[in-house]
Amino acid sequence: MTGAIAVSSRLAWRNLWRNHRRTLIMLLAIGTGVWAMVFMSALMRGMTDQVLVNGLHNLPGEAQIHHPNYRADPSVVNSLPMPGGELLEALEAAPVTAWSARVRVPAVIASERESRGVTLLGVDPATEGGVDALPEEIIAGRFLEGVDDRGLVIGAALARRLDTQLGKRVVIMSQDPDNNVADRGTRVVGIYRARLQGTEEQFAYAGREVLQAMLSVPGQVSEVAVTGGDYRAVARWLPALQVAAGSELEVQSWMELQPFLDSMLEVQDGFTLIFMVVIFLALSFGLVNTLVMAVFERTREIGLQQALGVRPTLILQQFLLESLYLLLLGLGAGNLLAWLTIKPLESGIDISMVAEGMEMMGMGTTLYPALQASDMWMSTGVVIVLGLTASLLPAWRASRLDPVRALNKT
Amino acid sequence: MSVNWRLAWRNLWRHSRRTWLTVAAMVFCNTLLIFMISLQLGTYDMMINNSLAMVTGHMQVQHADYNEDQRMRDTVPAVEALANKVAAELGVDTVAARGQAFALASSDDRSFGVLLAGVQPERERLVSSLPGLVSEGRYLQPDDSDAIVIGAVLARNLKVGLGDELTFLGSGRDGSFAAGLATVVGIVATGMDEIDRSVAQVPLNWFQDVFSMGDHGHVVVARVPDLEQVDGAVARVATLLPSESSLTVLDWDALQPGLRQAIRSDLASGWVMYSVFILLVAFSVLNTQLMSVLERTREFGVMLALGMGPGRLARLVAIETFLMSLLGLVLGLVAGGLVVAWLAYAGFSYPGMEEMAAQFNMDSRFYPQVSVVALMWGPVTVFLFTMLAAVYPSLRLYRLEPVQAMRAV
């Protein structure tokens, strides 16, 4: 039997090149289709990755601990004490790699001329870096130096809107737990730039202890951001943390905190598959056409083979093998082409032309295509499975030919 | 000439299965293109109108520096009078004056920074869709003074309901301390968290008192009946402004630059996808025509030997392609038209859409735009490309030697 397969595979290979023009055109078509599948999905992956990274950066962390009411009512009233005891142990244990406790309250910042609503973050500069929540770049002055740093760090866009600059005094106003206006004058010690202008306008950083004193909540924080270094592997450490935090506190992963990001990933996976199938459908007409023609041309030959005692399954096998070779060659060419076109682009495609439009979708000004092996496998799977399915009908018809009539065909 | 056409038509059906497969490729591609393009265009119109109708309007008159940094001091003097002048010039009453200031809003329990907008109640109704979205209480009325309408999320965050009082702390136009006290008379629920978190509207006159604005405001917002008329309206309003003033007229593109760019980038990625489809179909047609030329080598040889010029043979192949492509075009148009017509009636949605839509201020169902452009663009391009695909097979005919061709197997 193995001999039969060897023969039909050799036959199929030779048959493929009997009409090399047709085969080449078909290869070109399959190659282009596969290239488009892989290239476009790499671009789309790049986009979603970026939206996700930006989203997690602003969150920050892959999970957060809050007072159960904080998310519905982000007020200083709904604070939690600094982690201690069992929770602290869980936070220090692997695979959690870093955590940061922060005060996060809505506030108003007023310069001599302007005032703006912001989200005021009281942070510990030493731990913020661990959860990747530090501003991307300080363009003037410095970042905070400790939890008791009395300065304020704001975004470049906010500085412009407030008509203020490095070293100038501003007043920050928020409320304490008794709903008295808590305010203090402070000095802008640093100005940062972020990937998104929206971020620059929204977040202002102050020392955690300074903010706690201003809001009269010593030792209290609004949220604890936790990270394990890989956003796909949150489930490995989240349950332990939830147990340690007890029922008094709410521990949520980024999927729960930002359901939008999570659903975006799902929509994208679905969309990539649909995209590939649709491209394949456009291809399949040509593929089936080619095979139908091949069968038509070789009707007499098939009749002869049958008359000589070749079983129908072997003829079916021959045509399917021919189609498989065609698909594999096309896949090889398409994937290679996609790899060759994506590699040079991986350092980033400048899309600052449409930056503000991209920002609406939560992206920065550079697009980094992300070539994932899984996408290449998915396109290969789609093409082979659907390709063989589409070839089944012409191949089956070939195997069912009536030998006498086929031989007599002119 | 009609012999050529009849010959071409008959040749097509010598391999009816092959022809149908090729036509099916075109029909599939055309239907898909019609569906996607009309969906895309429909989404853009919806995006533009939804985002502009709430707050921005089609155009605004502002101080030249206001759009960039929104500073309190970059005002429009005599803003209500200017709004009247703009309305008279454009011949529409959808023009309104607004003032805007950031302030710390405090209820009994909570404080939040808000962007407080002073509006002309009777005019605002005509310009913005927000007044129509009041879910509790009522919208502002012309004789209101210290009344405020806020968004539902803001109301929840501030823990206030109808009849509760809010105090405002901020700074006035001259940098002085500004404070005011207003009563909540209405709550707006748009269903979009971003908007519901930020809406806070008070009557313009009260706003001007509290923030020491005099008769100044920050913007004059205008809406015109149709997006197409915006450019003309901007030019006409620009002539109204005194030449030495620092005022300027901005259209929606300048006010929300993200919008058009988002559309442009989406279009660009769409075109890449469409070109791939069209290319694949063109390959399919190329293959079919090449095959039909190659297998007829003997026949063509005979025709050449009978004195028919290669030009006429090439024409024959071109006519075949033309007829086939035309068939694909017509059937594709019918199929695509039916799909779009049905969707225009039923709407279109896919799983996960709703969260995405909420994020981008969009309806969770799409309605495709049925227009000549959306219907014709795809099929016509496919048609042109498939005609191009016939060039190579036709050129081969010129290289045909009659004697050799007749001997070909």
Automatic annotation (TrEMBL), chain A:
Superkingdom field: Bacteria
Q: What is its main location?
A: membrane
Query: What's the protein's topology in the membrane?
Result: Multi-pass membrane protein
Give the residue spans that cross the bilayer. Answer: 24-44, 273-296, 324-342, 376-396
Keywords, ordered alphabetically? Cell membrane, Membrane, Transmembrane, Transmembrane helix
A Pfam family annotated for this UniProt entry:
MacB_PCD
Q: Where in the cell is it found?
A: Cell membrane
Q: Which GO terms describe its biological process?
A: lipoprotein localization to outer membrane
**Start and end of every MacB-like periplasmic core domain?**
23-205
- Cite the ABC3 transporter permease C-terminal domain residue spans from the record: 274-403
Q: Does the keyword Transmembrane helix apply?
A: yes
An annotated GO cellular component of this protein is:
plasma membrane protein complex
- Please give the family membership noted in the entry: Belongs to the ABC-4 integral membrane protein family. LolC/E subfamily.
**What protein name applies here?**
ABC transporter permease
Q: Which organism is it from?
A: Halioglobus maricola
Automatic annotation (TrEMBL), chain B:
Annotated ranges, domain ABC3 transporter permease C-terminal: 272-402
> What InterPro entries does the database record attribute to this sequence?
ABC3_permease_C, Lipoprotein-release_system, MacB_PCD
What's in the GO CC field?
A: plasma membrane protein complex
TM helices/strands, residue ranges? 20-41, 271-294, 322-346, 366-392
Q: Which UniProt keywords apply?
A: Cell membrane, Membrane, Transmembrane, Transmembrane helix
Q: List locations, semicolon-separated.
A: Cell membrane
Query: Which top-rank group of organisms is this from?
Result: Bacteria
Residues of the MacB-like periplasmic core domain: 19-239
How is this protein positioned relative to the membrane? Answer: Multi-pass membrane protein
Q: Which GO terms describe its biological process?
A: lipoprotein localization to outer membrane
Stated family: Belongs to the ABC-4 integral membrane protein family. LolC/E subfamily.
By its UniProt entry, which PANTHER family does this protein fall under? Answer: LIPOPROTEIN-RELEASING SYSTEM TRANSMEMBRANE PROTEIN LOLE (PTHR30489:SF0)
Indicate what this protein is called per its UniProt record: ABC transporter permease
Organism field: Halioglobus maricola
